[in-house]
Design brief:
Elements (H helix, E strand, L loop, with lengths): L12 H7 L6 E7 L5 E10 L2 E8 L2 E10 L2 E4 L2 E4 L5 E8 L2 E9 L11 E7 L4 E11 L2 E8 L2 E10 L2 E4 L2 E5 L4 E8 L2 E9 L3 H16 L1
Antiparallel strand pairs: 1-2, 1-8, 2-3, 3-4, 4-5, 5-6, 6-7, 7-8, 9-10, 9-16, 10-11, 11-12, 12-13, 13-14, 14-15, 15-16
Length: 216
């Protein structure tokens, strides 16, 4: 069984612009249209032309790799796609028979607020410092500003648990203190170790405190 990690999403900017694949990342739940039985589909991550998924049906869960086809994922006999990142269509097709289900995106249980703040790190692979500033998190979206290779971009990123994906960059953290910025350059991706900077007011307080101690 493949090891599953929620911090290794690598979606090419071209595919993201065309298909919005990051909308599929997360957990989906619903019922089959024909018999009303529960069905679930979880997209753990997407890496190029494959995705790590979990498909739950008839009380059992199958885990493995799905194939990315345009804006949809195909896992065995089922295909899933979503246009808005809130609802998804799941289609089962085998032996001439078909079944469909409509799924709802589930709110992730992870605390995305620990991503808020300024992150930075450097790597020889990226030829300089990379910074990822998370201005705010609102549900599945985050206002971010990145500076990669001297180029600054600002906009809305996609949030899934402890991961934010924005354009050619991705930020993840496990503890809200140390993290990883994944930078895509051409066809290659680089992982840059990142540290969360203290808030400006906290830094100022620490400086003042140090000054007082010296005087004393």
């Amino acid at each position: 069984m493949a090891a599953i990690s929620s911090t290794t999403n690598q979606i090419s900017p071209a595919n993201e612009r065309l298909y919005g694949l990051s909308r599929l990342v997360g957990e989906w739940k619903g019922k089959w249209a024909g018999n009303g039985q529960d069905v679930g589909f979880k997209v753990v991550n997407i890496r190029g032309a494959t995705a790590q998924v979990e498909y739950t049906h008839h009380g059992r869960t199958e885990r493995g790799l799905a194939t990315v086809k345009g804006g949809t994922l195909t896992f065995g006999n089922v295909t899933i796609g979503s246009k808005d990142g809130k609802t998804a269509a799941l289609v089962f097709s085998a032996g001439g028979g078909k079944a469909s289900a409509y799924l709802q995106k589930q709110q992730p249980a992870g605390d995305a607020n620990m991503l808020v703040g300024s992150w930075g790190g450097s790597s020889d692979d990226t030829q300089g410092t990379s910074s990822f500033r998370v201005l705010s998190v609102d549900g599945k979206e985050a206002k971010v500003r990145t500076t990669i290779n001297g180029i600054t971009r600002e906009g809305t990123g996609i949030v899934y648990k402890n991961v934010i994906m924005f354009g050619q960059a991705q930020l993840s953290t496990q503890d809200g203190k140390k993290g990883t910025i994944i930078v895509q350059s051409g066809l290659r991706s680089f992982a840059v170790p990142a540290t969360k900077y203290p808030p400006a007011d906290a830094a100022a307080t620490a400086t003042t405190s140090t000054g007082v101690n010296k005087l004393v």
